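Figure 2 data, in text form.
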Amino acid sequence: MSGCGCTLRLGPRRSCASLQADVGKTFEQIEDKLRAFIDAQPVFFVATAPSDAGGHVNVSPKGGAGLHRVTGPRGFAYVDLSGSGIETVAHLRENGRICVMFTAFEGPPKIVRLHGQGRVIQMADPEFAPLLASFAVDAAQLPLVRSVVTVDVTRIGDSCGYQVPLMRFERERDQLIRFADNRIRKEGPDAMLRYSTANNTESIDGLTGIDPLV
């Protein structure tokens, strides 16, 4: 097993390090081909950790058409939708460290990782409205938005992804939208704001999550 996540057969004269160099490289910026690859992925993963070594490391899947985009040669952002947990936001508010990973489930194998410093833009922040408007958020998704996360990318790397299985994308799930619709019908237009205030203000390690929204 090499450090790039690939299973490789080692010959008698080649080291693991030299083989790894064949399949993974770093980039000075998010080039056009990388941008196209990132834009095409229906799901990506974010990894964060608290500063306390005894805290819980977190990895979260993120998806939704039009809800992530490259913002510049070394910039990335995504719309943070409501959920039962708030680990990513809480870790970013504490120390900003984040790794964003994209992997190809169709076509040629490929993994791209963006390491950097993340920042949480909340509804009360002056930047929030214009930043949110730069995404293709539809009316059904809008009540679910609780923040936007931006990343100043400090390292851009790819690797082979040979161990990632081939899987076919079927469709976006609609359970989260139906969950929000149901709560709004029962509790009124601010139902999801109240949900985030009740469930997303503190991480499992007691770190500050989303500021109360109502």
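Caption note: The longest helix spans residues 175-187.
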